[in-house]
# Entry
Amino acid sequence: MVTLKDVTSNPLIQEYTHQTGEYMKFVGYTDHGLAHAEIVAQRARAVAKAAKLQPREQELAAIAGYCHDMGNFLGRTQHHYWGGLLFGQTFQSRMEPKELTTVMQAIVAHDKDEIKIPSLVAACLILADKSDVRRSRVFDGSPQNRAADIHDRLNYATTGNEFVVDSKKKTVTLKVKIDTALAPVMEYFEIFTERMEYSRKAGERLGFKFGLVINHFKLL
# Structure
């Protein structure tokens, strides 16, 4: 039975994820490497546990979270498909077909095409992935780069990020602190509106309500 520990120690998965981090740095994008993978895996497991998914589904959510972006080194545009296929190739002889396809499908679903969420495992991954907004994701924090790139500007301006999962209230809340001297709150909505909508739908798939709080103001 493949566990997250098996995945994180697999040399192919490690290299795919490492090369993704290097490639995204090269093309001037935010961090999608090991640090992002670890955060998303942890948060996906937390959501799955709060939603009372079976222990094995919790493990699959964490696995999908860790591997979801590793296809980026083959190309950003179709990275979710590359990631799903790479996972299948790596573990097809070691996982039950149902588990294998669940993880593959979740990896593909995290980057929306038709805003369809095929499984509870995919919903956990989506909520975890869209929550990772932080300054340390920015490779080049220079004023010139921040002025030119809204994604880097907003991640750099994010000085606090708290992901709160409440199993009793059935809520998942992303609490973000933004330095408005570096980026106005309205810019957050320019690039994150679709992501927050996807998070809302993922929460609904689990029977949870997604909430967004920026600088102590509840916006969703």
